[in-house]
Structures are given as C-alpha cells and as structure tokens.
Design brief:
This protein folds into 2 domains: 203 residues, TIM Barrel; 93 residues, Lyase, Ornithine Decarboxylase, Chain A, domain 1 (Beta Barrel), CATH 2.40.37.10. 29% of the residues lie in helices and 23% in strands. The protein has 11 helices and 19 strands. Strands 2-10-9-8-7-6-5-4-3 form a 9-stranded parallel beta sheet. Strands 1, 11, 14, 17, 18 and 19 form a 6-stranded mixed beta sheet that branches. Strands 12-13 form a two-stranded antiparallel ribbon. β15 and β16 form a beta hairpin. α1 crosses α3 and α3 crosses α4. The protein binds pyridoxal-5'-phosphate.
C-alpha cells in the first residue's frame, strides 16, 4: 500500500491552460512550463494532456527533463531548456532537438561554436539578477546573437505576483529597451505576468503554477486532492504526549489517529503546529511532530474512527497549506514526492 492517494485532475490543468491562453491575443502563443516533473504532478501525464489541448511550446529546466519530454511528446512540440546550453549537454541538445535558452556569453559562444545552425533562444536579465544576459553584456553581443537568428528572446519578472509593484513596469521598460526593433518573438510573462495584462504578453507567455491551480492565479480550477489512510486509532490519557520530542501533550483524554504520510511525502515539519486534515467536513488538527512516514491527528471530537483523512481538496489548497508553514504553493506542490499512488483524471487519449 502507498502512503496516500494523490488525485490529479488533468481536465482542470487543461482548463487552466485554456483560460490563461484566452487572456492573451490570438497572435500570442501560450506555452506550458513543465519543469520539475510538471511541478511535481507528473511530466509524462501532464505534458501529453496539454499537447492535446493545443500547447506547442514547453519549458523545462534541465536537458535531462527535455530528453524525457521529447520521448513523451514525440518530434513536434518545441522544447525550451531554461538552464540554456550547459557544457556536456551539446549532443543531447542536438539529438533530442531541444532549444537551449542561452543565458550567458559563455553559453552563447559554446552554442554558436558547437551547434551553429541549431535553434536557440536568449534570456535577458531585466532586473531579477538570476539568469540571463545583463544589459551591458547584451549591448556587446546583441548584433552577433541576433545575426544567428534566435527563435525566442525572453526575460522573467521577479515580482509579478504583486500587481502594484513598480518593479513590473521597470522590468517591462528594460525589456522593451533591450529588444527594440528585434524581429525574434519575445516573451516576458509567467503566470503572474499574464494577469498583469496584455502589455506584458508580447509573442509568448509561459504559465507554470497557474496551470496547476496555484496562486497568483486565484481563479484557477483546483487540480490536486490528497487522501491519507488512517493506520490506527487509540486513546491517550490527559498528560500523555504524542510523537518525537514530546512536543504536544494532551490536556484531556484524547483519541489519536496515526496516518500514513510524513515529511518524506511533502508534509514539512514546518507545517506544524497548524496543519489540519479533514474527516469529511470536519477539520482535525495534526498534533505532535511530523515524522518521516507518519502524522498523528487529534480526532477526539469525531463520533467515529475515519478510514482516510484529507489534506488537500478544492477547499484546502496548496496555497492555504503553504501559508501554515510560511512557504508558497509552488514548494508544497513540488515537494509532494514519489510515494503516493497517483490517480489521474482526464488523461490524454
Ligand atoms: C518557472 C518559470 C516560469 C513559470 O513560472 P510560474 O510562476 O510558475 O508561472 C516561467 N519562466 C521562467 C523563466 C521560469 O523559471
């Protein structure tokens, strides 16, 4: 038996892609970001469903992910590699027909020397200071790079989840300035940028988290649900503690349910105290520390011992859970781990 059952609604992912696609002009292509195993939800299930929906451009972080995606999707879709052209990846980029998103002068040189006619994109840094050619570097190499006809020029917003942040318009101006007059298609926006409006869309958008039901796309259809089986239930006396470090002590006689699933399944220790699981409509607090494979839940107020408890459902989202632990929905999703039984609804046909 697995630790729990992770329900993943591919219909909802497809609906979220369509909705995000509709927010931009017809002339703007909507790609799909499926890095980190499609944000933990399963690349080989998610990507074919999005391809069936009409997605023709996919982004992953690593060349290894790109290779797996190519095997999954076949020769047609364009697969962009956000790490760019890393040393050692040249043959794989060529064989799997991947498009490295070049992010430094060193990578540009490597690409033009080793795969001179192979398609590539460019990442420009407009203020995030993470990945991409900086403005001064770009001024030096722009002519050379543009002469090699990049298939995409992209940058990334660092504060798009805060619509009123002045950084958004500052990055927009920098991107405009750095790409003025270029013929290559341009892309600036991930999920947050799509919500900022058409001025941020250019020729391609790159939604990731919004596809998977996460903020900042508040109107997303919910995608994941997580049920954890109860292993055993028992009574303890007032004054007895539960779990490692005896961090929680019962004030009154209590009934405890021990549930399959722990920090190895993405329930970080930082989610305690504060995490709740649902017995149908009734919330039940997790008590004591999260173990590697187990959670302990106070079910004293229930009139029966449940068979399963639910951690995530349409009303208990990854973002709500993330807030308990001071993190973000992205991190909860990508931490879900490999031990769950995964049940997919709406697989590609
Ligand atoms: C991860 C990533 C995206 C997708 O971002 P979301 O916020 O998940 O939509 C888009 N572009 C780049 C460069 C990224 O690293």
């Amino acid at each position: 038996m697995p630790t729990g059952t992770l329900h993943i609604d591919l219909e909802a992912i497809a609906a979220n892609w369509r909705a995000l696609d509709r927010m931009s002009a017809q002339s703007c292509e909507t790609a799909a970001v499926v890095k980190a195993d499609a944000y933990g939800l399963g690349l080989t299930q998610v990507a074919p469903r999005l391809a069936q929906e009409g997605a023709r451009a996919f982004f992953v972080a690593t060349t290894d992910e790109g290779l797996e995606l190519r095997r999954t999707l076949g020769p047609e879709p364009r697969i962009y590699i956000l790490y760019g052209h890393m040393s050692g990846d040249t043959q794989m980029i060529k064989r799997a027909d991947l498009v490295p998103m070049i992010c430094s002068i060193e990578q540009l040189t490597r690409h033009l020397e080793t795969l001179p006619r192979h398609p590539f994109g460019l990442q420009l840094d407009t203020g995030m200071n993470r990945l991409g050619l900086r403005e001064a570097e770009w001024q030096v190499v722009a002519d050379l790079a543009l002469a090699a006809e990049p298939v995409l020029i992209a940058s990334h917003l660092h504060s798009a989840d805060e619509p009123d942040s002045p950084h958004n318009t500052a990055q927009l101006s920098a991107f405009r300035r750095m790409t003025e007059g270029v013929e290559a298609p341009r892309s600036l926006s991930a999920t947050g940028g799509i919500l900022l409006g058409p001025g941020f869309h250019f020729d391609m958008t790159r939604p990731g988290v919004g596809l998977y039901g996460g903020l900042p796309y508040a109107k997303a259809e919910p995608v994941v649900a997580l049920d954890l089986p109860v292993i055993t239930c028992f009574d303890i006396e007032a004054g007895e503690s539960v779990g490692y470090g005896a961090s929680w002590t019962a004030r009154a006689p209590s009934r405890i349910a021990t549930v399959a699933g722990g920090y190895a399944d993405g329930m970080h220790r930082a989610l305690q105290p504060g995490m709740e699981l649902m017995a149908g409509p009734v919330p039940c607090p997790a008590v004591g520390r999260v173990s590697m494979d187990l959670l302990t839940i106070d079910i004293s107020h229930l009139d029966h011992d449940p068979d399963v408890l639910t951690l995530l459902d349409p009303h208990h989202t990854v973002d709500a859970l993330a807030q308990v632990g001071g993190t973000i929905g992205y991190e909860v999703l990508t931490s879900l781990g490999a031990r769950y039984a995964r049940r997919y609804r709406g697989a590609a046909t």
